[in-house]
Amino acid sequence: MNDIIKLTLVETVDLIKTKQVSVKEIIETYIKRLQETEKFNMLSEKNYAEALNLADKADSKKTEDFRPLEGIPIAVKDIFCTKGNKTTASSKMLNNFVAPYESTVTRNLKEAGSIVLCKTNMDEFAMGSASDTCFQGEVINPWTDDFSKPLTPGGSSGGSAAVIAASGACFSLGTDTGGSIRQPASFCGNVGLKPTYGRCSRFGIIAFASSLDQAGPITKTVEDAAYALTHMASWDKNDSTSVNVPLPNLLKNIKEGVRGLKVGIPKEYIIDEMSDEIQKLLQTGSTWLKEQGAEILEISLPNTKVALPCYYIIAPAEASANLARYDGVKFGFRADGPFRDLNDMYCKTRGEGFGKEVKRRLLIGTYVLSSGYYDAYYIHAQKVRRKIVEDFNDAFKIVDVILSPTAPSDAFVLGEKKEDPINMYLNDVFTVPSSLAGLPAISVPAGLSNNNKPLGLQLISSKFTEDTLLKTAYALEKAASFSFTPSLDK
Amino acid sequence: MSNSRPHKISGKTGDWEIVIGLEVHAQVSSKLKLFSNGSASFGSNENENLDFLDIGLPGTLPTINSYVIDQAIKSGLALNAKVNNFSIFDRKNYFYPDLPLGYQISQYKDPIVSDGYIDIDINESETKKIRIERLHLEQDAGKSIHDQSPEDSFIDFNRAGVALMEIVSHPDLSDWEEAGDYVAKLRNILRFANTCDGNMQEGSLRCDANVSVRKPNEALGTRCEIKNLNSIKNLMKAIEFEAKRQVKLLENGDTIDQETRLFDVNSGKTRTMRSKEEAHDYRYFPDPDLLPLILKKDRINKIFKTLPELPSQLKERLKSQYNLGTYDARVISAELETAKYFEDLSEGRDAKQAANWIITNLFGKLNELNKSIKDSPISSKKLGDLLDFVNSGTLSNKIAKDVFEEMFKSSKEAKDIIEEKGLKQISNEDDIEELVDKIISENETQVKQFKDGNNKVLGWFVGQIMKLTKGQANPSIVNKIIIKKLNN
After folding, report:
1. Model's pTM, two decimal places?
2. Which site from A60, A305, A394, A460 is most exposed, i.e. has the minimal number of CB atoms within 10 Å?
3. Residue A391 and residue B42: Cα distance in Å, rounded?
4. In Å, how far from its chain's centre is CA B97?
């Protein structure tokens, strides 16, 4: 039954519902797949024994008692607290941390019947765009041909994207702060959906930048993303920033097409750093939508240029406070003593417990909040953020959806940008503006690069219109008919 | 030093004025903490009252406990302040082991309450308005414990996350007595409003004092902040010491360093805690985990309607309803328990008598023992019984005071003491006549003196009767009968 892992989420749900295959067989098949693909270093924690146990339980149920995700194997980014597993955020700081509570998103999914197969590696505390800052080593993109030059799966949800590329789970969970779901989905040939800020509860998700963090699914298809999000999202009293706006029915009209829909292409998204093939991809994407009856309009998002610097002030500022709790006092890593004094304990613990990129961002964040710099950086960035929100508001008066590339390139070789953080940060140039505005956005695989690596196109819609977003994404997916999968036998 | 108020510091170069602003941290009376479901109760075992947020576990988020917000609104209204319909929770960043998140959630630029005032009494007839700049909500920290082991420190996080109201006055206070009165009054208002229990021993109310000195009509001097004053007595002592210290420095040609100081209760002195250079840069910014707090007018109005009688209103009512004088009304309204005690006691009795007994006798004894009315061994019910014995003529005022002393010592009922000791007043006229007849027949000299017009001798006769009855004879009846008999 090696075909099992080729199925989409929606197909697998049907398969289970009709009892054509036992849940146990599905889980075993996926476990086998994960065992075969360990060389990609995608997993931080394996949950196989519990998964098999849950499979038996599911199989003992009557079909009429099946829940919407009964028996569906999922992979969870190691930033979601899950009871009974370690939750490390791929940091030495939390290397032995076991949360005594379940994140709301994973609880929703578990209550819908899904089975957590594994936790996935990521950039430490979700800070990175290459999954090369994990405490347990870099994640390797399954699309890698030459293992002497392994490719990045993107980041920070690189493990979760790689697992789907390797067909190691039906779908996976990521979090997106400035592109951390969409860019890895683009690099790995998956669909990556970042919902409206507030759609999914942040409770139980280890915080990076609270005003930006949002959970979302990484899937094989757009329909799968709609199905997964339907069972992830909830208004949660444990998260003040989660929103009480009912989720539209995401599946009902997903196939109805884009006729009459207005799609904007922001002229500011045509940037120097973008290669010809990405430009061409964008052109192709707009043609696909046009051919299906959408109206393509050039729009302007004038403050796009300052979105990246704005993001790299706000996100580190929030992170500098969010990560202050890791001080060696209450839980997590503490450096070996003896210590001269309290400060010595703090310095050694945080010095040894955090990796280089995390420390870089904590320093930036602390700096931009410091008195004397606060107005010039943090306050200024907040003003810019409001401008960016206004840009989008204006744009959505004219168009329904915005189309852009997801990332400025295909997957690059791991280590290539590690010593050049600015270049690394440029990866987020198309994803960051919508994050700052809290908008739903999705990356859809749209073609292969000259190197035969996946490339994604991004769609952005206005707040709470995930239905429109997914409908457009579905049309794009259909036209692209991206059916490539990496060959894993290298 | 002159005795006129406000007190000034008289130095070599003349008088110096004191300028004081106070920051009072009042723990909100609430079952739960500000942002978590941890219990806010006092006196539990270490680390017993914890929610996950209270130790900063990753992924946990603060959510506002709306009861605490209501309490802050109520406090603001009780302090004649403006309740803001828009306020923001900020993160105040600093590292300390008892601060679980590495930041305190507080309010910085946009507090929930601003621009209030309270009036303090500065003498019998005058009050002084002390302006309150703001009241904001913030989390308390945990407690570091350093005395359990020579090597290790421990932390009790029970208090971490408990809601505090920081109430900041303008620098309108001019001496330590005003500062003490202000805190007492503020505490009293919050207790009347039932938003803070005001228990300073348990740390429910603590003060920081900003103190500076200046020559009259000169610009404000450099201030020092004295942290963590946990009683009104210490607050007053610390301010007085600090003002004198500053005057001494200035008169010696030194300057005041703006710094944070601590008051040492044992020495009665303040000492440097940290200098301005060591001051934290708190890097305040709005907490992205919490939305701005929007308060609708309806909610504020609804709470306004539930506002109980406050000390100033009570004082006026005591004057109008019970005809108490200003002094009595002030003393009775100074504590919630006193007012309650008084109203219970005066129920169906003479209010003035009730006030006198409380202020003179009960407070006299309680003050001797440094006790508050809450700890009084004589309840209002028991004291009422005693007054009833006086009013019915069963006890003379004098004997009643003896019974009161006994009641205070033993907590016994007046009735039992009177019976045990046979203290009942003799009011039976026949019994008294018999005694008067006896005295008159045995003392012809004094009878003659009376008949010769010496009225003073009347007292002598009364004294004799009282001697015979061990003071238990009803004096007015004794008087009446003696006069009647002597005139016969």
Report:
1. 0.90
2. A60
3. 52
4. 33
